[in-house]
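Weekly modeling sync, notes
Attendees: S.R. (lead), two postdocs, one rotation student

Agenda item 3: backlog of single-chain predictions. S.R. asked that every request posted to the team notebook include the full sequence so nobody has to chase files. The rotation student volunteered to paste the first one in as an example of the format we agreed on. Action items at the bottom.

Example entry:
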Amino acid sequence: MSRVEPIKYFESKVHFARKVLNEKLYEISDPTVFKFIVYLLRYKKLTFCLQIVLGLLHLSGLVHSFYGKFKVFYDLNDIDSAIFKFVDSFSNVLLVLSNTFVTFNIFHGTVLCDVAYYLHYNRFSNKQHEPVFVFSKGMVALHLLTLLPLTINCYVIAFQTGWKFYQYILARDIEYWFFNFVSSGTVAFAQKIKNKFSDINQLLSEIESEFIVTDVVDDPNTIDNITTISKCLEKLEFIKEHHNALCDLLDRFNKAFKAGLVMIVLSINGNILWNVTVLIEFTTEKRLINGMDISVFVSVSYILMILVTCFQAALIAVVGEHLAEEGQATSRICYHLLNKFPYFTENKSAAVIRKEICGLLDQAKSRNVTLNAGGFFSMNWGILGSIGSTVATYSIVIMQFVLK
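Predicted structure, as returned to the notebook:
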């Protein structure tokens, strides 16, 4: 195996942040949003200007939406429910904050430069990851599904009731569409890190077939066996170094995006609560906008929004869960190798190899291989349960206020 140096460049962030500008650090099979972000990393001034423009658009859209809804939209359509207005405002603010915060955070510092550079140039396997294609297709499906309810909103409100109403809803629809790219872009980097852990575990699994199940340990003095032992030790050292480097990379990623991940999960909660509130408000009694009954369109559109938002949460949970499984798999494979190892063979090579495996096992058990939002929570299937319980609890409260 050709030896690849682990990521020493963490100590020289500026050098590698500049180096990444002239490199193509993505694969054809990567999600489009991942390739777009990596491409923008090359152009610091352009991305800075883009951040400023997007920040101003987010702020102006929020102000215009608030002003129009409270001054025009609510009064003309006899919407006087305080809880409806509160959930609308609160969820809208969460969306804007999430989009603004993560947009500025993505291109701040050199974390993603380091991630992209390491993931591209440290290849442990030539195989193609099937989940990469599934993940990319899932991203495309999510982007297309997001447009469906927004298209219904545009058709019903803009074309049937007029621009004077839709202009105050358009800003939120755009924020929701943009939020889909923000959340999926963040998760795409975590998915790439997960694939590298999978490659590391694959290399570790190959040690059994290459070394332990043979008679190399029993007769370590032949020329062929000496070569095999040397390769095994080199491979174990390689795996240990890169496993530690990947853990460091994941820690930096989690630290850089912990607040962004919290905002994303809160926005998912807030958006589902808002959709449920709209469904209750517009389906429990007849609602007319500019003289048109839109209850059926609202039901279809906002049920679709709930499903799409749940899809967003599920995508985050799947990536986080698979990342945690890869972290646990390293320890499991180490235990498996130690159980298969001939303990009673008395030679120095066996002792050194056992020591390397035990060292990797201790390292794997001490590192936290998860996608987490700081000390708040880990991204796994548990967030779906948390979102479900939150929505169920507050939906009951919202229903009581709206139907009162």
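Discussion: group reviewed the output briefly. Residues 8-402 form one domain.
Action items: rotation student to repeat for the remaining queue; S.R. to check formatting next week.
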